[in-house]
Structure formats: structure tokens, C-alpha cells
Amino acid sequence: MKTICFYFQVHQPFRLRRYRFFDIGQYHNYFDEFANRSIMRKVAEKCYLPTNNLMLSLINEFGSRFKIAYSISGTALDQFEMYAPDVLDTFVKLAQTGSVEFIAETYSHSLSALKSRKEFELQVTAQTQKIEELFGQKPTTFRNTELIYSDEIGAMVADMGFKAMLTEGAKHIMGWKSPNYLYTNAINPKLRLLLKNFQMSDDIAFRFSNRGWEEWPLTTEKYVHWLNSIDSKDEIINLFMDYETFGEHQWAETGIFEFMKALPGRVLSDSNFEFLTPSEAVKKHQPIAPLHVPFPISWADEERDLTAWLGNEMQDEAFSNLYNLIDKVSSIDDPDIQRDWKYIQTSDHFYYMCTKWFSDGDVHKYFNPYDTPYEAFINFMNALSDFKLRLDKAQTSTDTNSESDTIKDAGEIDILIKDYEKKLLELKKLKQKTNPSSKSKNQKTAGKKTATAKPQSTTPKGTARAKREKK
Fold first, then answer.
1. pLDDT tens digits, residue range 62-90?
2. Could you say which of 101, 105, 119, 146 is catalytic?
3. Using CB atoms within 10 A of its CB, is residue 367 exposed (0-12), middle (13-18) or buried (19+)?
């Protein structure tokens, strides 16, 4: 039998509050408690609770014949514990069914794999320990933040003992090859690779409610017909998507819950497919070839690269300044500093600085809580500047009220002011160059922009996908 592998990403960032320049050195509370709590509760009611209950009912109905997998970031797990323990309880119930696999990822949903192997390994270890503590599973499968992958990242993951890793079946990497097989890491063939079938995944995640889509409305009969039409030699269809697809990106009124409720029965009765978890899939299928990915890919935007998070001057500077602090952070045994270090690394902060006013640019603008990437950068750098002052103070003195420390802080703030004046001039010029009003009317759109016209999601992050190719 052929395999369907259902995997869902669950992530919520700790969003920064509006942190002003004059807060630097005065206030160390960087995160928006109200926004984080209210958004978590909204998404819990619209997505997490009803979808978890739906998945539980499907497992109760079909038993071991229906399998799914989750990766849950450490920041999301922390927010479940803080704001939504009822959601955490339902994930525990799912874990107890034996039909759910929990996958490892970075604790902070960060970009650490691109900068520091040590930090990357620390975060993965912390997240896997959290998964084992909460759900009683030790993950053997890994997915990096936003499916970011390269040969070198895969080799690091293999060195950590993972058996399999998920990533995107990017067209510029695959070429003529099909994503519907098992592959191996090009450096360490012990690591198996499961590749997202972005066409079949995005039919559910992004096109389901789009009335302008030529295949709307999507029914289970139509979807299973597409599955049956796939090349007979293909072995596995990996359906990877945000969990917020259900009830959040695709609202309940679209019929997404009814579709998901009916899909397993239709697949099991009218096709030659079975549902397996990622770890089960890699045991069943044999890899057909190594996959060469010399430069990092992701599942974001048409380009499937890193430009959603890195590439413009603001993102690169923020990224560099952040990870220049690694050595200082590692030398300080302060739980508050360590907590803030984890949360400030979350990739969403860099996503908000994206200046891609072509292709997927409207998507970044639509899901961005800031009015401009410029504002996102300034807000992040303000918080990071204060965090750096805390690190310097913790390193040089245990007496935070001493006169010498006060003079030192004032001198450092004067330096920051001069640096900011220079940076403000540079960024004002950059802002003019990246003004979205100048983009061409003929630019194509992708992913969530083509999904459906509806009120803005309560989830401030988004990941665009490519349009479905005509069959």
C-alpha cells in the first residue's frame, strides 16, 4: 500500500510589545502579555481545541488506521502552560492514543541552525526534553524551523541521533524528481528525508476556501481522485501544513472541519493508501537516492528560500547583532536572561522585517502586526539593545546599583543614541526604496494571498505557498 503522512506545525511566538528607544535601560519587559494571552485564547477556541477534538474522534473511529504527527515549538508549549492548559490536556490525550507522533524542532522556532551549531543543539535538546516530559515520547524525527534544510543542517541533525527529517519538496531542488519517495541526506545517508508534496498540501491549507480557484469547492471525492491519479510508482504523499489551517486560516464556515472529518474514511475506503506517522513511514519505505541541497531551502513563499527572514539590510543586521551575543549569554546563569534569550530568537521577529514587495509581498504585509518592516526592525533592536546592556551589567558587576555601573550604562546609552541617529538616516532611505506602493500591478501573487478574502487572521504570522500547477 501507498502511504499518506499527515504532519502539522504548531507554533506561537512571544510577541514583542511596543518597546520605545527611551525604554532602553529602564524596562526589561519585552513581551506583550496581553497580545500573547488574547491571541492564544482566540486561536485555542477557533483552532486548537476543536481540531484536537476532531482528531481524537477520528482516532477513536478508525483506531490505528489513522495516524498523524505534530511538531510543537517550545514557545507554543510554554504558552499552552501559561494561557491554555486545556489545549495542552487535549494534546496529552492525543499522545495517549498511540496514533500520534511528536516531532523535535528548535525550542524557540529559531534560525539558530544557520548561525550556531551549539545554540541549535541546545534548543533541540531542550525541546525534545519538553516533549518527553509532557507527552512521554522521545522524538526520533526532526523538522527544522519552517522546514529549513540543507545538506549541512541535515548532517547536524543526523549527528544528534535523529533517524528522519522533514523538509520541502522544492521545485528548484527536485527538478524532474518526484517528492513522493523517501530520500537521504547527501552527507550522512543514515538520515532519511520526507519531502512535502506542496501541491496536495496547499490544496487544503491555502486554496480550500478560494472561490476563485478553478477546483473550488474541494470535496473528499475530488481529493481522493487526485491521490489515485498520482503515478503508480510513487510511494508516499507527505501532507505538511500549519495546524492553524483548521479554523484559523480556513474558518469553520468554509467547511474545513467537515472536509477533514470525512477525509480518512474516504481515503481508507476508496484508495490504496494507508496513514502512517513519519517514523513508521521511514521504516516501511526504502530511500531511492540522496538529495543534494547545498544551500538552505524552506517552505516559505514561491522562492522556497530564506528571504522571508534574511536577506535585506535590516534582517541581516538584526540577525548578526542577536547571535553576536551567544558567548555572553552562555556565560550568564540567570533564568530571566536565559528565558528572554530563547524568546527573542524566534524567527517571527525577522519575518516581520521582510521587504519583499514582489511575489509574496502582500502576504508578508497582510500578516504583519507592524505597519512597516522599518518599525519591526526598530522595535526589535530597541529590545535587543536593552538585553545587551543587561548582559554587560551581569558580566561586569553583581552590584547593579553601584555608581560605576550607572556611569557605564549612561555612557553606553550615549553611544547607542549616536548609532541610532546614523541608522535612522540609513533606514529612512531604505524605507523609501522598499515602499510597497511602488510595486507593479502585474506582479503575481502566491500562497495565502490566493487563498480567500476574509478578515485578518488573529495569528500574526503567515507562510505563503505557491499556486497549484494545473493538472
1. 999 999 999 999 999 999 999 999 999 99
2. 146
3. buried
